[in-house]
């Protein structure tokens, strides 16, 4: 019969074996990231921020990242779209500042499962087209079962160099997240687990370009996207008060998975 | 700020709202199911059965199901391949007999998330080709990122009718599962949740065909399938001592999601 | 060395062998067809009708067909969206009335190649979602690399029965097409082949439902769909003067491929 | 009514308009190419070489190329697998040496159509996985509707530099092809067009790595791949007498489409 090993960490199905828990392990990958940020209405945005957190600024970042050469997928690749806000968790031991992900769409199921179950990152599936690059124009579309709900474009200006690049590297470096891991009760309302989790990660930027980015949301009907239409409507309805910054960056992304910790 | 509603059930991301918990709710869908069963070696098979369960017979069922008109996906569709064994959980209040899923591959992420997080069904992703039907021949292939690991074929004999059909309806009816919901600790080995869950479901068979089914496994390298290769190897290595039954059935599948319960 | 066989028909690559030309051969398949027709402006529509043809009525039919159990694909399946108009070719031997396809989108390349190269049907690729069926609602979306350009919905009324069904069977039966096979010159403008081809095909309707259908076109930018955006714009710009009919039908489709002939 | 423009070149559907024929036009794109070559048996290989050509050496090159930033697709991308042999066409005006493609698989329909109809390159569809890169290991798989038929791997040695790189650039530069454009008669065996076409193209190599490449073919049944299984069997059956070279190269690929010409 199958027995769990005390030194291992498992994902379902557990009975085929787990992974030795190794605190020195880090997930690494190459990344091309297109990020578009805007200022919105604080009250509108706070409707989606749980009480345990504080919104540090009424700003939303939408970033599409194309990941390749992923070590924990033996060199595989996938794309993601992260929608996040700057948040603070204040607990017994002080506070933690990090991005709070409202939602992450990914076009690969394996990282969706690890992200949700290990660190509470609210990942769900969408088709995310690899960047079309017709210099200086970049474009991608995010869709669900043939229904487009987000189009992103970027028109690159000049490459950032010298001191400006050094500054940009510092500014973009932190990708730390606060996840809210929520696992429902069985056969009843409410939760069996509800935890806030700090998940450290960063990008070593190698190249960066400023430019002009655009976001275009298309709301979908329940029949077009039965499980996500209300998420898309909520995001599409956030007013854009001011565009903050659009940037394209390339580099190495590191996820310090084993250093994630429950916030208390 | 966002507050959870006590009467609702949520999935991540929770902050966009949940669903009212409604005990009368049932998930319904049309199904075409191709099932191939075989007898294997008990000791080999028990390596993958957790101690909390008892293996009722050294038998493995591999069934591919094509689901359409799914109510909770507003009419959407997906395919699955379920590999299961007959199991028993014995607790304080007596025992429960149901199928224990060793693994379920699905080609849609939404039901993978609900299955894992709500009821501990060990669902993971694969591409599963819709049945190719060249009467009396049926075929499907299951692959991961372009690497085939399971091919199933079926050659239909005559349609089952009359009393035989009534018997088949009874025999195939139960699709009850015992899931093992396992959610790991954050930043440490071990589990934050580890529960066995009974999940009632059934099929109302309308048509059925006996026939000759085949299963062909192809083992994959870690680079071809970094997260599942050991599962495929384990299943491919189970000896086939005797073919038990191959059947193709069509009908209505009902999942009694809210009646799932933790086994104690 | 490889030599062509005089009795065979070939497609590229020819050097791996062809198929014996068999006049009794017919392509057969199961079909579910959702068809929406409307009246438009004659002058607007005639911009896309070649001079060799006559437009019999300023009507456009948009039909999505889900094909399964395809004999020439050994039981495979694919979906198509046909946009066609009623046309007449008048030649030396009299006239031929059939549908003239303005464009056919298909989500499988093999039938695109045979359709274009054998019979001049202007097939191009798109992703076409299998029908979502949430009775009485039906929906599908057509997209290109993540960009939706056509959404179709249908709300079924009652099933057509008795005499009405017999009439509907007759009315829907003919799927005859007139293709325009155009193969360009190499290294110069103009054509090496430019022929109008009559291609007989039909559907044996088994079930049919009247209902309310809708079409919603979304124009795309050149960067979203570099090779098809002008086709989509042209179709999206056709005024809808009157809705004619929306019908959902199921049955058997037969293509009499070898009886296709060049119109003269 | 629609009229063709004498100065334009068209593809089906022609009636939505063509492209001005511009002899200065070139198709450009970024490319990562993994190429594996081997020596085989001359008589076995010549079974697939048309009489109009001469086989210059009994060698087969299998190359997977990942194309991005494609100008004629407004920055889109696709992958291809080219299987080719060194060939010579001798006509009235002397001879032309170029690669003769036995088959080209591509995972995008648009370039399949232009390649076949404009220049006789025998392109057909397959799913071709983007390279998985787990340095120094590279891998890709080629499949059809879930059935893998070719796996390629590469283990990179050191980067080629200095004089060796200059030599490699010269050696790899030519990608010239001889296509056999074959368009069948309608309603009869035989061809309406059968032409050999010279299509100039090249790669400006920027980086290159020698290494150890492998090819693994898996034959498929007619039901798994109804239109291509005989092509796969033919290629899988070619004996590997000697491995010649495996190389990974990155650079810019240029297709001089308008300079293609019919060989006479």
Q: What can you tell me about this protein's structure?
A:
The structure is a homotetramer of 264-residue chains. With 264 residues, chain A is mainly β. Chain A contains 4 helices and 17 strands. The first copy, chain A, has helices at 42-46, 109-119, 162-172, 229-236; strands at residues 8-9, 19-20, 27-39, 53-55, 59-70, 76-91, 94-106, 123-125, 127-128, 132-134, 137-144, 147-159, 177-184, 191-199, 201-217, 242-255, 261-262. In chain A, the strands form 3 sheets. In chain A, strands 3, 4, 5, 6, 7, 8, 9, 10, 11, 12, 15 and 16 form a 12-stranded mixed beta sheet that branches. A 3-stranded antiparallel beta sheet of chain A has the order 13-14-17, with helices on one face. A two-stranded antiparallel sheet of chain A has the order 1-2. The longest helix of chain A has 11 residues, at 109-119. Chain A is globular, with a radius of gyration of 19 Å. The mean pLDDT of chain A is 97. At the A-B interface, strand 1, strand 7, helix 2, strand 8 and strand 13 of A face strand 1, strand 7, helix 2, strand 8 and strand 13 of B.
Q: Structural class of the secondary elements of chain A? A: mainly beta
The helix-strand sequence of chain A is EEEHEEEEHEEEEEHEEEHEE
Major sheet of chain A, described briefly? 12 strands, mixed
Mean pLDDT of chain A: 97
Low-confidence stretches of chain A: none
Which overall shape of chain A is indicated by the principal axes computed on the Cα atoms?
A: globular
Oligomer: homotetramer
Radius of gyration of chain A: 19 Å
* Beta-strand percentage range of chain A: over 45%
Query: How many H/I helical runs of chain A?
Result: 4
Tell me the span between the first and last alpha carbons of chain A: 37 Å
Largest protein-protein interface: A-B, 76 and 76 residues
**Into which percent range does the helicity of residues of chain A fall?**
10-25%
List how many beta strands of chain A DSSP finds: 17
